[in-house]
Amino acid sequence: MASALAGGVAFYRHPSAAMQQVLRLRLLLSGASERTVNVGGLPVRYFESLPEAPQRGQETFVLVHGFGDSAETWSLVLPELRNEGRVLAPDLAGFGRTPTPQEGMSFSVLTDYLGRFLDAVSVRKAVLVGNSLGGAVVIRYAADHPDRVSHLFLLDSAGLHAGATIAATQPETREAARETVKAVAGKNLDVPRFVLDDIVRRGKDPARQEYRDSDEPTDVSEYLPRIKSPTTIVWGERDGLIPTEHGARMRDAIDDSELIVLPDVGHVPQLQASKRLLEIIRERLGRLGLRGG
Question: Where residue 180 sits, what CATH number does that domain have?
């Protein structure tokens, strides 16, 4: 009784953290390992899943979350990919359980640490899957390291809001938080006030503030034409943060790319349409002959 009460109080005070913990436990129960690796002095937390029966030629997947999110956002995707190959989901520098790097928070710093993370966990070449800010990060990495990316999956990717560090505004009130939820979900939701209050509090997290205050915009315009790997762009039709038109612009700028628009889906396909996303990943890699077996 006491533990249930304590759990209820914790959820009321910090609902986002409580939900993140639920997703973390889901990953661990699926057989994923939670690890930390030293990346230039920064302890980067990540989840890793390995196939039960590894086969020659299987891919390595690296799943990269968005702004203010964490590796737990892949809890519906990572377990389902485990038999496709090695699957890694890191916390970007400054987010989740990875501390803020001494270089500060900016687009170039996050991209640099992703590359250094891949080196630290011995990933030579990978399928990169990035959502929102994570999409912008993998775009920049893929452009700078074309020989290390076999396929790119961009999910509602950031990077084309001119001059902006990030598309999402920082909610200061419950009403603004409600609008943020609507933009992410793609529809109106009946969100309790204590959840809205938690969204406002989380928006003031120092790492988020530092990234917003960076002088460097999250701009991928110059990187898109330099991408050499086959690219699948997936967009939620109801995304209220980044319009589908940005996905079309990315498709037009990247050779050997396609745009798939998911109806009735918002900004986070890996949570809102995980089964469809997994079908897309498997079908595209199977078509290219990249899947093991």
Answer: 3.40.50.1820
**Domain-embedded: residue 238:** yes
The whole-model pTM stands at 0.92
Give the structural domain span for 60: 2-288
Sheet containing strand 85-90, edge to edge, reads: 33-39, 42-49, 85-90, 59-64, 126-131, 149-155, 231-236, 257-262
* pLDDT in the model for residue 11: 52
pLDDT tens-digit readout, 172-223: 999 999 999 999 999 999 999 999 999 999 989 999 999 999 999 999 999 9
The answer to the question of residue 293 being in a domain is no
pLDDT the model gives residue 4: 37
Quick: pLDDT tens for 85-96. 999 999 999 999
- pLDDT tens by residue, 43-88: 999 999 998 877 777 899 999 999 999 999 999 999 999 989 999 9
Please answer whether residues 193 and 218 qualify as being in contact, where contact means their C-beta atoms are separated by less than 8 angstroms.
no
Domain count, the chain: 1
User: Mean pLDDT score of the chain, rounded to an integer?
Assistant: 92
Whole-number Å distance between alpha carbons of 94 and 239: 25
Residue 154 in any domain: the answer is: yes
